[in-house]
Amino acid sequence: MQADSGDRHGRILDAAERSFTQAGFHRTTVQDVAREAGMSPGNLYRYFPSKDAIVAGLVERDRMMLREDFESFAQAERLDLVLQALAHKHFEEAPRAKAVLCLQIWAEATVNPAIAEANMTLENDLVHGIERLIAAGQARGEVASGVDAVATAQLIMTMSSGLFVRRALFPDFDAGSEIETLLNVIRGVLRGDTLRGVVPHYSPLDTVMATETHR
């Protein structure tokens, strides 16, 4: 009986993901989700009392999946390979619809305190997970001792969020290229390099001079 309840719970969340991605969060009703899940609205309400509760359930499911990711890499010996695997899994292998849904949840979190709280819990878990990976890398000598694990974890989250936005908004998003750029920046930061030393910097004057040179 408990397994059946879990299956129905997951079925509703899967249906909600499809419905929200196709029609948008605000245009999708609980009745739409129930129809997509192949059940009556009354039956759905036994598992989720509101649309907000469904969204919170989606965020919590993602949080648990990400926690499993971090646990599976807890004993890994190379931080670089761990970050590479996580980046490809979430920015390339996961369907683009996942990024689209993520943007909708973030937008709703700006006006809905309950969803904002659920999203913040996931965000904190992610930052702490990355922080632990960096600290473990420092203990193995892979990461420069002067690197601030907390600040670097937050920086990685900020850059990763940008990739989610780009993947959701641009159908021609080049995951392989953008992931490699992200990883190169992260590698430099973990070595203790400044961002200026990792990412080429072009001033307006540089651009003008380059243009003049090629005329």
Automatic annotation (TrEMBL):
One of its GO terms (molecular function) is transcription cis-regulatory region binding. This is TetR family transcriptional regulator. The keyword Transcription applies. Keywords: DNA-binding, Repressor, Transcription, Transcription regulation. The keyword Mitochondrion does not apply. InterPro entries: BetI_C, Homeodomain-like_sf, HTH-type_TetR-like_transc_reg, HTH_TetR, Tet_transcr_reg_TetR-rel_C_sf. Residues 29-48 bind DNA. Gene3D superfamilies: Tetracycline Repressor, domain 2. It comes from Chelatococcus asaccharovorans.
